[in-house]
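User: I'm designing a mutation panel for TetR/AcrR family transcriptional regulator and want to avoid disrupting the core. Could you give me a predicted structure to guide residue selection? Please restate the sequence first so the numbering is unambiguous.

Assistant: Good idea. Sequence first, for numbering, then the predicted structure tokens:
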Amino acid sequence: MKRGRREEIALIAAELFREKGYHGTTIRDISEACGILSGSLYAHIKTKEDLLYQIAERGADAFLASLAPVVEMDVSATDKLRIGLTKHIQVIGENLDAATVFFHEWKALSEDKLQNIQQKRDRYEAYWSQILAEGVQSGEFLHLDQKFAKLLILSVGNWLYQWYKPDGENDASTIANRFVDLMIHGFSHQGGDPID
């Protein structure tokens, strides 16, 4: 099996899963988009679910790899929050199709594959919990409901794929800083200019 060809198929499948959904995409759709016959596709993959798993795992691994070093940085929890959210946005921008599939289609996986992806999602959430706990311990985040703070961060981060454009007016760092300023200071804070 040629890894390069399988990677190409996975990228095409991710785009189709993003556009049509996993269940709405057929093997024929994938093979036609790849320019090969359906039967020939099985020389590179076992099942359509294997493609979904490969894409979801790639998304999970990208998010984990981006945040793990941030947790270990010798900086304030607030800086970790800013850097971590920036990294999250960058992962989405660089892997838009895979990130979308990771957020929306992963639950179509069978139980064993689903559990593996869930474990990686749980590890990612645990990193955010660690950053928030550090902020509470240091006194940076006062009176913080850590559960809802984590939900807020993940909700903000995970919805970005709907509207974030890597080549848009605001880069990942700018957007992350604006969000973190709102999280830290609240809506009553008179901050900088709003994002247009």
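For picking mutation sites, this is relevant: The chain has nine helices and no strands. The radius of gyration is 19 Å.
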